[in-house]
Amino acid sequence: MNEPEWWAEQFEENRGRLRAVAYRILGSVSEADDAVQEAWLRLSRSDAAAIENLGGWLTTVVARVCVDTLRSRSSRREDTLEARASEAAVNRPAMSDPEREALLADSVGLALLVVLDRLTPTERIAFVLHDMFDVSFDEIASIVGRSPAAARQLASRARRRVHGAATPSHADLNRQRQVVDAFLTALRGGDFEGLIAVLDPDVLVRIDEAAARPAGPTEIRGAQAWAKGAVAFAQVARSLQPMLIDGTVGLVWAPGGRLSRVLRFTITNGKIAGADIIGNPARLRKLHLTALNE
Questions:
Q1: SS3 248
Q2: Which of 53, 179, 195, 216 could form a disulfide with 186 if both were Cys (CB 3.0 to 4.6 A apart)?
Q3: In angstroms, what CA-CA distances link 242 with 96, 161, 215, 288?
Q4: What would the CATH number be for the domain defined by 170-290?
Q5: Residues forming beta bridges with residue 250, ordered by sequence position
Q6: CA 39 – CA 52 distance, rounded (Å)
Q7: Would the pLDDT of 96 be above 50?
Q8: Which residues contact 261 (CB under 8 A, 6 or more apart)?
Q9: Contact residues for 229 (Cβ-Cβ < 8 A; gap 6+)
Q10: Domain 3-163: CATH superfamily, name plus number
Q11: If pLDDT is split at 50, 70 and 90, which confidence band does 107 have?
């Protein structure tokens, strides 16, 4: 085996970890693959023999590429969430990419990706590298251009945002989760009677203009009326995920980990008595979102 082939083999041994790092930072399969490919290109242009710790070197390169991607993404925030969601819906394949589904179903979880997407680029890098991949703060500092102490603070701040503040009691949270899970199961199955069973007869649903269909209602009253219209959304409901929204269990739709729609519930006596369907970007940014512990 010649030297280029040997280095290619060494890179392939690291590819899985590099893709995991990039995916957790970026929340995008295609962008993660691009970051890993860029790491290979930089390795091929480097004096590989002078690299003492190839795995660490490659992780640093991928992380720096991801920093650039996140910062570029942040500079394009003027693109509305509605536009990104519409693009995702248009470009989504009829059959899910098995690799994409496997990645989204791994230990990260879509709900965590939603929370990570709300962090600053440096917070996200520090949290992912340290808390998920045990990279030292000295190494992280060199990647984000901060001191080790500042990198530690970034990770700590991100950790607080990821895990959230005080939440309802465990028992109350379980009761909410049972109601929301029953609603989601019925919605995904197009089960009209199942929806009626979990909705208060006088449920009030408010839909902001960004989330409403063109010429559609912005307010729906009564379980029968909402259930009748909701069963048409069984396909979309498969992409909904439970999350803590302002301290209570709700549902989010987040194509590629980018928050697009939120269903925030009011649950009374084991029934959904009210729901806010939110799509306005300004309102979405104000919500406090936390991943649920499975």
A1: strand
A2: 195
A3: 20, 17, 28, 14
A4: 3.10.450.50
A5: 243
A6: 16
A7: no
A8: 85, 211, 252, 253, 277, 278, 279
A9: 220
A10: PhyR, sigma-like (SL) domain (1.20.140.160)
A11: very low
Domains of the chain, by residue range, sit at 3-163, 170-290
Q: What angle do CA 183, 184, 190 make, to 5 degrees?
A: 90
Name residue 242's beta-bridge partners: 251
**Is the Cβ–Cβ distance between 113 and 254 less than 8 Å?**
yes
And the tokens for 270?
């084991």
The pair of three-digit structure tokens given for residue 288, joined into one six-digit string = 């406090």
pLDDT value at residue 76 = 58
> What is the average pLDDT value for the chain, to the nearest integer?
83
Helices (H) and strands (E) in the chain, counts: 15, 7
**Per-residue CA distances from 40 to 21, 24, 31, 43, 65 (Å):** 15, 19, 14, 5, 12
Amino acid (one-letter) located at 10: Q
d(CA 195, CA 178): 13
Buried b / exposed e along 205-231 (16+ C-beta atoms within 10 A): bbbbebbeeeeeeeebeebeebbeebb
- Are residues 63 and 25 in contact, defined by beta-carbon separation less than 8 angstroms? yes
Tell me if domain 3-163 and domain 170-290 are identical in fold: no
Task: Give the tokens for residue 261.
Answer: 């729609």
CA–CA separation, 228 and 246 (whole Å): 28
- Could you tell me if 259 and 289 are in contact, meaning their C-beta atoms sit under 8 angstroms apart? yes
Map tokens 């996140």 to a residue.
70
74 Cβ partners below 8 Å, 6+ apart?
Answer: 120, 121
| 117 residue type, one letter | D
Main-chain dihedrals φ then ψ at residue 47, nearest 5 degrees: -85, 85
What is the per-residue pLDDT for 216?
83
Distance of CA 150 to the CA centre of its chain: 25
Name residue, tokens 């839909």: 207
Structure tokens at 238: 């498969």
Spatial distance between the Cα atoms of 249 and 242, rounded to a whole number of angstroms: 7
| CB-based contact 155:135 (threshold 8 Å) | no
Q: What is the pLDDT of residues 33-48, one digit of tens each?
A: 999 999 999 988 888 7
